[in-house]
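R.M. (postdoc): so does anyone remember the format we settled on? I'll just put the structure tokens first.
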């Protein structure tokens, strides 16, 4: 397999990065697993993805940051905390070399699960 081929699973994705980044990615993976214990793992859009009733979150490593998608930037609950990080409307970039905000990541995942359940319940009405 060539290194530019898409990873087949999250283990393979993580293994492609330097050891210090692998540790961060693995810790994010564990944080998401704890927040979404019933979710399954996949690679979508070339990134680690946790799936429940749809895609809960994607995350990916880049040269200087870890990206997480979607980020609830428009939600009042997260407005102050997410303003400390760069990113577009539905993304957040956590800089490598700074402490990773694992509690914030956990709460984003929990929010996404609640959001997806609310949409699912609305769709059934």
């Amino acid at each position: 397999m060539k290194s530019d081929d898409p990873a087949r699973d999250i283990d393979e994705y993580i293994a492609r990065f330097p050891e210090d980044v692998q540790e961060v990615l693995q810790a994010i993976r564990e944080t998401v697993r704890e927040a979404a214990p019933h979710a399954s793992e996949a690679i979508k859009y070339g990134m680690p993805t946790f799936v429940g009733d749809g895609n809960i979150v994607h995350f990916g490593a880049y040269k200087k940051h870890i990206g997480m998608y979607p980020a609830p930037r428009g939600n009042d609950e997260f407005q102050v905390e997410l303003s400390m990080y760069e990113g577009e409307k539905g993304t957040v970039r956590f800089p490598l070399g700074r402490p990773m905000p694992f509690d914030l990541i956990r709460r984003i995942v929990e929010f996404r699960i609640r959001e997806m359940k609310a949409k699912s319940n609305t769709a059934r009405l």
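R.M.: ...and that's the designed sequence above, right after the tokens. Also worth knowing: The chain is about 40% helix and 20% strand. The two ends are 47 Å apart (CA to CA).
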